[in-house]
Structures are given as structure tokens and as C-alpha cells.
Specification:
Strand order of the largest sheet: 2-1-3-4
Order of helices and strands: EHHEHHHHEHEHHHH
CATH topology of the largest domain: Rossmann fold
Largest sheet: 4 strands, parallel
Number of helices: 11
Helix content: 40-55%
Number of domains: 2
CATH superfamily of the largest domain: 5'-nuclease
């Protein structure tokens, strides 16, 4: 499996679970900011978690999953690529070993996760990988190319079921979705989105 010329981020299940956060990450990935990767196991995890919290969604998340796959055609780090690596990895939470193994197999530069404590820098450094919380990751992408980041968020807002909602409503949704710094940036750029 070859790596990407672009910066590559493995997206942990916890950042694919909240809709606003997922949409922000997918919007930046499809705009060419980074190559997004995940596994079917990560997919299963975010789907199970969301269905557990919202039982009315059981069996209805396939459309969202398929839309994510369609948006990022090269998303998958296959189990055959990462499963053999897991035996040599130790993390504070053994359930996260597959995430680091997938990051290694997928040639990721970064793991985007809300659970930074589960991915100690000392261990990740051995593999040349860093971990970033999703809000910091989005802001770092924004700082690389503010004009295109704003354009990506403008397109994201236009895709909403209620695109007529105000820029403040849009920013508030991202804030509630776990991206407070991103929301503040969007408030500052309200006239542009």
C-alpha cells in the first residue's frame, strides 16, 4: 500500500461519530487539505456508538457511511494491512491498538482523535506519527490555506438541510459538535460563509 503525497490523517471513531465534526473533516479532506483514512472496524465502532445513543438510527446509518466512502474513495486501510502489526503495539487502552496499527499501515502522519491520552506522544514518535484533537487539526488546516478553508466551510453550510440558517447558527452547530475554536474562526469570517 503506497502512501499519499498529501498529509495523511487517520480518523478515529470518536471524530466520525459527531455529525458536525465529521462533516467538517470530510469537507476539508474533499477540498484537498489532507488525505483521510479509516478502517471498517473504525466505521463499525462509530456506527455502534451512535446507534447505542440514538436507537432510532439503528439500521439507518448506511447512507451516511456510504456518503463518507463516496466522498473519500481511498479511505480504507484494509484489515489485511494493519492486523499483522497489532501484536507489536502497546497503548494505554488496548482497544486503540488497531487505530495506531491502521495509521502505520496507512502511512498516516497523524491520528485525529478526541482521546489524546490514549495515544501517548512517546509511543507515536517511534512511528513518526502525531495525534491531534479534531479542533486543533481543523484550525491547523485552516491556517495552511484560510481562503480555501473558508470556501470548504461555505460549501458545507450550503449542503445543510437548512442552508438559510445564519452563519451564527452554523458556527453554533460546530461549537456544539466539539469544534469550539473552529466555530470562533467561523464567527470572525461570518460575512464570507
Amino acid at each position: 500500500m503506497a502512501g499519499h503525497a498529501r498529509y495523511t490523517a487517520l480518523l478515529d471513531a470518536c471524530v466520525l461519530y459527531p455529525l458536525a465534526m465529521t462533516d467538517a473533516l470530510m469537507s476539508l479532506a474533499t477540498a484537498g487539505f489532507f488525505a483521510a483514512k479509516w478502517t471498517t472496524r473504525i466505521e463499525d465502532e462509530w456506527i455502534r456508538s451512535l446507534e447505542k445513543q440514538r436507537p432510532e438510527l439503528v439500521g439507518k446509518l448506511g447512507i451516511r457511511r456510504d456518503s463518507m466512502r463516496d466522498a473519500i474513495p481511498d479511505w480504507e486501510v484494509p484489515e489485511t494491512a494493519w492486523s499483522a502489526i497489532t501484536g507489536g503495539i502497546e497503548l494505554p487502552d488496548p482497544n486503540d491498538v488497531h487505530v495506531l496499527a491502521a495509521a502505520i499501515a496507512g502511512h498516516a502522519d497523524c491520528i485525529v482523535t478526541s482521546n489524546l491520552k490514549d495515544f501517548p506522544t512517546s509511543i507515536l514518535m517511534e512511528f513518526g506519527i502525531e495525534a491531534a484533537d479534531p479542533d486543533t487539526f481543523v484550525i491547523n488546516q485552516w491556517d495552511l490555506d484560510p481562503v480555501n478553508a473558508i470556501a470548504a466551510f461555505k460549501r458545507m453550510r450550503a449542503r445543510r438541510q437548512k442552508p438559510q440558517s445564519s452563519p451564527e447558527d452554523f458556527a453554533f452547530g460546530l461549537e456544539q459538535g466539539g469544534l469550539p475554536t473552529t466555530a470562533e474562526r467561523l464567527r470572525l469570517a461570518a460575512e464570507l460563509i
